[in-house]
Design brief:
The protein is of the alpha/beta class. The chain has a single domain, classed as Rossmann fold, CATH 3.40.50. It contains nine helices and nine strands. It has a seven-stranded parallel β-sheet with strand order 3-2-1-4-5-6-9, with helices on both faces. Helix 2 links the parallel strand 2 and strand 3. The longest helix has 29 residues. The protein starts with 5 loop residues before the first strand and ends with a helix.
Length: 245
């Protein structure tokens, strides 16, 4: 059976590459979009050799909103699945003192992925099929002192995905929101992460693949995060202010 490609945005990240490898294992061709795609040449060659699927690379700057439609126009085939792994953790202290840094975090985590998924959603809707996957964050479920710039952007992205899912319901388009929690990646290197709450990139990739096949709406990669965030969301604000999470 001929499969439509999987398009992965922000393909240079550990989570994106693990997700790419899981779909390739199942026989899906890949369209990998990232800045500086020369860094992905070794991965491309390895995936093609290991799994026997076509892997195409596309230079892509997500913050260049005008380039989004151009990228889609350049693809030889409109993908069947599009995964946004675009993201930037940033540094909260820097964001508090440098508006430019804060804007970059907010644009990277909300504006850029939302605009791209909105563009490709229109094309999927015209075709009548497709799956959109947005990797958001549990950080967006409540603003916390230690990462509220990043968290606020992810909150916006999560809300956007929810609205997109509602709009496209019944039109043949599946929208999946992924909430990974802590993940042991280059982005979190050096952080003291709790083992029980921390996933590995391969675990995230496998979970995303399974959730797409099952057409799930929201995915907590580690189910314990659903309970953790339910507790955090329901802490009364006077108490929450004293916690400094």
């Amino acid at each position: 059976m001929t499969r439509l490609p999987v398009l992965i945005l922000g393909a240079g990240s550990d989570i994106a590459m693990a997700t790419a490898r899981r779909f390739a294992e199942a026989g899906y061709p890949l369209q990998l979009a990232a800045r500086r795609t020369e860094r992905l040449e070794r991965d491309r060659a390895d995936i093609e050799l290991r799994h026997g699927v076509k892997v195409s690379l596309y230079d892509f700057d997500a913050l260049d909103i005008a380039s989004h439609s151009a990228l889609l126009d350049s693809l030889p085939d409109l993908p069947g699945i599009a995964v946004s792994a675009i993201g930037l953790l940033g540094d909260q202290a820097e964001n508090e003192s440098d508006a430019g840094a804060a804007i970059r975090v907010m644009r990277t985590n909300y504006e850029a992925p939302a605009c791209f998924l909105g563009e490709i959603a229109n094309r999927f809707e015209a075709r009548g099929s497709g799956t959109l996957v947005g990797i958001s964050s549990v950080a967006g479920e409540r603003g916390r002192a230690t990462n509220y710039v990043y968290g606020s952007a992810k909150a916006g992205f999560t809300a956007y995905l929810s609205g997109l899912r509602n709009r496209l319901a019944g039109k043949g388009i599946h929208v999946l929101t992924v909430l990974p929690g802590f993940v042991d990646t280059r982005m979190t290197a050096g952080m003291d992460l709790p083992k029980r709450l921390t996933a590995q990139p391969d675990e995230v990739g496998r979970a995303i693949f399974a959730a797409v096949q099952r057409r799930r709406n929201i995915l907590y990669v580690k189910p314990v995060w659903q309970l953790v965030m339910a507790v955090i969301r329901n802490i009364p604000e006077p108490v929450f202010k004293r916690l400094k999470l």
